[in-house]
From TrEMBL:
Protein name: CREG2 protein
Top-level taxon in the UniProt lineage: Eukaryota
Location in the cell: Secreted
Broad class of where this protein is predominantly found: secreted
Gene, per the UniProt record: Creg2
Length: 163
């Protein structure tokens, strides 16, 4: 399955696990896909890009955390059906950018995590704050009236496309 051969610079541990861990650690956003729970598109696939963090800068966990609002249709969907997939592209990585390769080129890895999106329990909220605010300081200034809260993905399946 490794059709192309290239040296990945700046990645984590070698191999597939290292590549997956690198993508989870270094992506600051991802594409979350849900099943729509509203209106004329009920039951259909629906997706949105969301900011994420897998931990504070010095403590990567591999568990994606999100700072979300119930005003977002994706979150509405997740509150009714927590099953989702999260795709993390290598678009933010140095390899594709440095080599001027389109993120959809097979040589740019993609990681898809599937599982349940759950509200972060009270005992983990402080960690979730550190995770999100250390990587995305601007979110502290987002309007409080949007009723922001933290979610995380309990990962059930991992699919790495790394050619």
């Amino acid at each position: 399955s490794r059709m192309f051969s290239y040296r990945r610079e700046g990645g984590g541990a070698p191999g597939r696990a290292g590549t997956a861990r690198f993508l989870a650690r270094h992506n600051t956003w991802g594409f979350v896909a849900t099943r729509a729970a509203r209106g004329k598109i009920q039951g259909m696939p629906y997706g949105n890009c969301l900011l994420l963090s897998d931990g504070p800068i010095n403590n990567s966990t591999g568990i994606p955390f999100f700072y979300v609002t119930p005003k977002d249709n994706t979150v509405t969907d997740l509150l009714k059906n927590p099953m989702a997939s999260l795709t993390l592209p290598e678009a933010d990585g140095n390899f594709c950018r440095k080599n001027v390769i389109d993120p959809e080129d097979p040589r740019c890895a993609r990681l898809t995590l599937t599982g349940q999106m759950v509200t972060v329990p009270p005992e983990e909220v402080e960690f979730a704050k550190q995770a999100m605010f250390s990587r995305h300081p601007v979110v502290r200034k987002w309007p409080r009236s949007y009723e922001w809260f933290f979610m995380k993905m309990n990962i059930e399946h991992i699919w790495l496309q790394s050619w």
